[in-house]
């Protein structure tokens, strides 16, 4: 059984590995981004060498719906096209070239949370349970029949890093099972129930801005949701951008008076910032261009945020 893989992130790496390890399957080609377009994905992975090592032809493309990709699909006539880790919608011409045998992976319990930025949104919305879903890609957005789905709990302190890693593990398990069923001719899937569909909007790096006037628990979610491989939550100390990679609620906030966004304590290698609800976050991992932490009593945030907070 021949497959073409389309993608350029860590989940694409998993797909290539599982294909190479599943009896009866072979990755004929990898369609992936050229390295100069790596910025399109915050979790970009250069997979060319790995693909060639398992005998897959590598095609660099910026558009999966381009004529070069469609010609490749028609020429190879694969048994399956796996689109995993690619940000563009597969148009009807793509689906026609693949004769409808296109499978995708979505890090959510479809039909819930269709759309973009799903791992951050899972944390931001406080989802207690999520799932990894393999589905048939159709003309809609994450709306095709479900081929495999694995549910698991989301920890109360889950970060994007840990949730991302758990999805890679889930993908490896359910993809192998789905490939075996597909080889036996089982590719119908179960239609999604539209009554339960929800949608997640696209997120940008600017959405990681920390508005210190918000409650500490909300900002803790933001920090966790934008952890690596995403760009991180950020604030400013003067003109210097400060990325907060890790933080946690600080139980001693009531003992320290200070303004919103003000550093009210220095602890270990981190610092504590007062939030809009009077609670505080202890910043445990941070990054600045200068490599220096802001001093005690400094006010973080853009100037107008500080002025509005008082």
Can you tell me about this structure?
The protein is α/β, with parallel strands linked by helices and 310 residues long. It folds into 2 domains: 2-200, Rossmann fold; 205-309, Formyl transferase, C-terminal domain (Methionyl-tRNA Fmet Formyltransferase, Chain A, domain 2, Roll). It is 26% helix and 25% strand. It contains 8 helices and 14 strands. The protein has helices at residues 10-21, 48-53, 67-76, 92-97, 118-124, 160-183, 216-225, 303-309; strands at 2-6, 26-32, 57-60, 80-83, 102-106, 114-115, 129-136, 146-153, 199-200, 233-237, 240-249, 263-267, 270-274, 280-287. The strands form 3 sheets. It has a 7-stranded mixed sheet with strand order 3-2-1-4-5-7-8, sandwiched between helices. β1, α1 and β2 form a beta-alpha-beta unit. α1 runs parallel beside α6 (160-183). The longest helix is centred in the middle third of the chain and has 24 residues, at 160-183. It is elongated. The N and C termini lie far apart (65 Å).
Q: What is the compact description of this entry?
A:
The chain is an alpha/beta fold and 310 residues long. It is built from eight helices and 14 strands. It has helices at 10-21, 48-53, 67-76, 92-97, 118-124, 160-183, 216-225, 303-309; strands at 2-6, 26-32, 57-60, 80-83, 102-106, 114-115, 129-136, 146-153, 199-200, 233-237, 240-249, 263-267, 270-274, 280-287.
């Amino acid at each position: 059984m021949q497959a073409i893989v389309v993608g350029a992130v860590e989940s694409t790496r998993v797909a290539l590995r599982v294909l190479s390890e599943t009896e009866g399957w072979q990755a004929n080609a990898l369609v992936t981004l050229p390295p100069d377009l790596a910025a399109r994905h915050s979790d970009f992975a250069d997979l060319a060498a790995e693909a060639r090592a398992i005998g897959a032809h590598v095609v660099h493309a910026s558009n999966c719906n381009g004529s070069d990709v469609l010609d490749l699909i028609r020429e190879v006539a694969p048994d399956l096209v796996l689109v995993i880790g690619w940000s563009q919608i597969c148009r009807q011409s793509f689906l026609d070239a693949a004769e409808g045998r296109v499978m995708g992976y979505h890090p959510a319990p479809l039909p819930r949370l269709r759309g973009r930025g799903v791992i951050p949104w899972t944390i931001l919305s406080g989802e207690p349970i999520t799932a990894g879903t393999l589905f048939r890609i159709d003309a809609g957005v994450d709306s095709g029949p479900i081929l495999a789905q694995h549910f698991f709990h989301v920890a109360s302190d889950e970060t994007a890093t840990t949730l991302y890693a758990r999805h890679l593990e889930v993908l490896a398990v359910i993809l192998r099972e789905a490939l075996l069923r597909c080889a036996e001719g089982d590719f119908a899937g179960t239609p999604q129930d539209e009554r339960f569909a929800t949608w997640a909007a696209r997120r940008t790096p600017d959405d990681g801005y920390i508005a210190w006037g918000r409650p500490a628990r909300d900002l803790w979610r933001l920090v966790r949701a934008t952890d690596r491989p995403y760009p991180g939550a950020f604030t400013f100390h003067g003109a210097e951008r400060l990325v907060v990679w890790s933080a946690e609620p600080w139980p001693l906030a009531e003992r320290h008076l200070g303004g919103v966004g003000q550093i009210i304590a220095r602890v270990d290698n981190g610092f504590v910032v007062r939030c809009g609800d009077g609670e505080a976050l202890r910043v445990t991992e941070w990054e600045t261009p200068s490599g220096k932490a802001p001093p005690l009593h400094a006010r973080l945030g853009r100037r107008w945020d500080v002025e509005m907070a008082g």
